[in-house]
Amino acid sequence: MKFLLPLAVLPLLAAQLSAPKAGNVRYADGGVRAVYGFDADFVLGPTWAKASTVAFSEKGGILALLGKIELVRADRSVLAEYPAPDAHPLLGISDGLKTAIAWLPSSGALVWWTGSRFQTTQLAGVLPGTPTSLQSDGAMATFLVTAPDGSVLRVSVDLASGDIDSADVVLGTRGPAYAEGGFVVFRNHQGLAVEQPNGSIRTLPYPAPDLQIEQMSSGWLHIHSAALNRDWALHLTRSVCALWRLPEPEAGQ
Predict the structure, then answer these.
(1) Among candidates 253, 222, 249, 247, which has minimal Cα distance to 235?
(2) In this structure, are residues 62 and 97 in contact, taking their beta carbons and an 8 Å threshold?
(3) How far apart are CA 164 and CA 166, in angstroms?
(4) DSSP readout, the chain?
(5) What is the pLDDT of residues 99-151, one digit of tens each?
(6) Cis status of the peptide bond prior to 176, with omega within 30 of 0
(7) Under a CB-based contact definition with an 8 Å cutoff, are residues 106 and 91 in contact?
(8) CA-based nearest residue to 24, from 220, 190, 155
(9) Distance (Å, rounded) from C-alpha 21 to C-alpha 57?
């Protein structure tokens, strides 16, 4: 028995089979899709989840869904769930699943994956501004926080105790800012600024007056402009610093 696929589906399947996976992106409608390809040649997969916030690495991801947080493996299978009433928690995952972490502003708590279960740590203090980025190494949580004057602070929190260990100004940056590995991304008057691990700043052309950032994979950030309703992929490695437009999802897919 033979099964025939519609001709329109064949190019998409061929592209996904031949192109590497750049990561997973949550679009403005909440639909989460895999992104395949490289440079400016990207192809979107079908919507596989609906979420309010997400963060992904090559090893898996953490998603905020209605009333809960899900931790998923690289194959998208669900490893664990945690009940969370926050509509838009701040999420992060740096590498393996043990770096998955969430900030719940309604309760002032950090929720992080120990390797076998979700652990909750109450913050013993008040963050000095609005948190915009969150990372974990399994022992410490690190926020980027925008202070009332627009400066950016790097705030480290001990996950065992919830104590704020340090709060240091990130020189040369303005909030909101987002950390990916040793890079810090923010917007300045010239465009999209990327502070590299050595402290130098590279600026890329960026036409939007605003930016919202989520991690789509290790070394890849998804940037969304609500003002322009456009999406970009920012690729950051030791040798690559490049920004490309992402395709827009087709209606009904």
Answers:
(1) 222
(2) no
(3) 6
(4) ------TTHHHHHHHHHHSPEEEEEE-TTSEEEEEEEETTEEEEEEEEEE-SEEEEETTEEEEEETTEEEEEETT--EEEEEE---SS-EEE--SSGGG-EEEETTTTEEEEE-SSSEEEEE-BS--SSEEEEEEE-SSEEEEEEE-TTS-EEEEEEETTT-BEEEEEE-TT--SSEEEETTEEEEEETTEEEEE-TTS-EEEE----S--EEEEEETTEEEEEETTTTEEEEEEE-SS-EEEEEPPPPPTT-
(5) 999 999 999 999 999 999 999 999 999 999 999 999 999 999 999 999 999 99
(6) yes
(7) no
(8) 220
(9) 11
pLDDT digits (tens, 9 = 90+) for 26-62: 999 999 999 999 777 899 999 999 999 999 999 999 9
Question: Which CA distances in Å does 72 have to 78, 109, 228?
Answer: 4, 21, 31
Tokens representing 108 are: 């002032």
Amino acid making up residue 111: V
Q: Are 155 and 163 in contact (CB under 8 A)?
A: no
- Nearest residue to 50 via CA among 33, 30, 24, 66: 30
